[in-house]
Specification:
single chain, about 350 residues, alpha+beta, Dipeptide-binding Protein, domain 1, four-stranded antiparallel β-sheet, four-stranded mixed β-sheet, about 25% helix, globular
Length: about 350
């Protein structure tokens, strides 16, 4: 099992007015409550905001909420920010929070995110800027639940069919950017929300160039038409020159992905655990990384990111042991084929 390290790079010459990015698939719906593909979620993330969010250090911080507190084990009180505006100029208030909860837990929409609210008993507005949330029982993800984006009540409350609403392609949010242009298989343009409650963005426009082919993205990078992108190990080792390196700052970090070899357990030979262990011991993981990824990777012990709470430092990946692998093959009833 190998943890890949991708090269992420940022140009030194980003225009003060426009940031050029790439996107490899078409967003389907820009309503964050029903957006299930990564492209939709990526774009919606600029347009909408939530009551709470993680800061750069992984701590929970208020966003649309000004503050929060538990008054008992099952009751959470939010104080909302005053003066927050939707991008159409309407005021944000507690009605929007209650509406979002009612919508995401209703049969009117099909969404995987409703499960986040399964322990919520009720949500009600105490006044225009105070929301009370009652839980059925103490819940360890009580705060994380409210990292769900909030949608506007004044626009959606009279919609007969949220799933086919024009709002899904022309959203109105409280986020840092406002959707300016969205067409299928074409560029997506966002402009800065000058009334954003956290402060106006420094970059006026964000443009996502639709590029389903990774080769096209690489060509756009080489011609300096993108500001941010990603390199494959092959590209960083063999396909970029000094001009490319002088134009871009290149940062290499652990990717949030891993490559692995799986066994088809429907096949009898793989049902024997000794055979699977033997194959594991016969593999030189480091050599695979060096050959396939030009050394831009690390051997990992499982699917969890190093330095996260789920990663177990005491578990080590198996080291190659050909002799033991051969013994296990024999115990598993398999014989090594003799070369001619």
């Amino acid at each position: 099992m190998k943890k890949l390290i991708l090269a992420i790079f940022l140009t030194l010459n980003i225009s003060a007015s426009t940031l050029h990015l790439s996107i490899s698939s078409n967003p389907s719906k820009l309503n964050p409550l029903i957006a299930t593909d990564s492209a939709s979620s990526q774009i919606a993330g600029w347009i909408f905001d939530s009551l709470l969010a993680y800061d750069k250090d992984g701590n929970i911080e208020p966003r649309l909420a000004e503050s929060y507190r538990f008054i008992d084990k099952n009751t959470l009180i939010f104080k909302l920010r005053k003066g927050v505006k939707w991008s159409d100029g309407a005021d944000f208030n507690a009605e929007d929070v209650v509406f979002t909860y009612d919508l995401i837990t209703s049969p009117k929409i099909f969404t995987p995110y409703s499960s986040e609210f399964r322990f919520v008993k009720s949500v009600k507005a105490i006044d225009d800027f105070t929301v009370e949330v009652k839980y059925k029982e103490p819940y360890f993800k009580a705060l994380e639940t409210w990292m769900t984006d909030i949608v506007p009540s004044h626009i959606l409350k009279n919609e007969k069919d949220i799933m086919t609403s024009s709002f899904n392609q022309k959203p109105v949010g409280t986020g840092s950017y406002i959707l300016q242009k969205f067409e299928v298989s074409k560029d997506i343009k966002l402009k800065a929300n000058r009334n954003y409650f956290r402060s106006a963005p420094k970059i006026e426009n964000v443009v996502y160039h639709f590029m389903p082919d990774p080769g096209t993205e690489f060509l756009m990078l080489k011609t300096h038409k993108l500001d941010v992108g990603a390199l494959t190990p092959l590209q960083i080792q063999r396909q970029i020159d000094d001009d490319f390196r002088s134009y871009y700052d290149i940062y290499e970090k652990i990717s949030q992905s891993y490559t692995y070899m799986g066994f088809n357990l429907k096949k009898k030979k793989f049902q024997n655990p000794k055979v699977r262990e033997a194959l594991s011991l016969a593999i030189d993981r480091k050599e695979l990384i060096d050959i396939l990824f030009f050394g831009h990777g690390k051997v990992c012990n499982g699917p969890f990111m190093p330095k996260t709470f789920a990663y177990n430092e005491t578990i080590k990946a198996p080291k190659r042991d050909i002799k033991k692998a051969k013994r296990l093959f024999k115990r598993g009833g398999l014989r090594q084929k003799k070369s001619a």
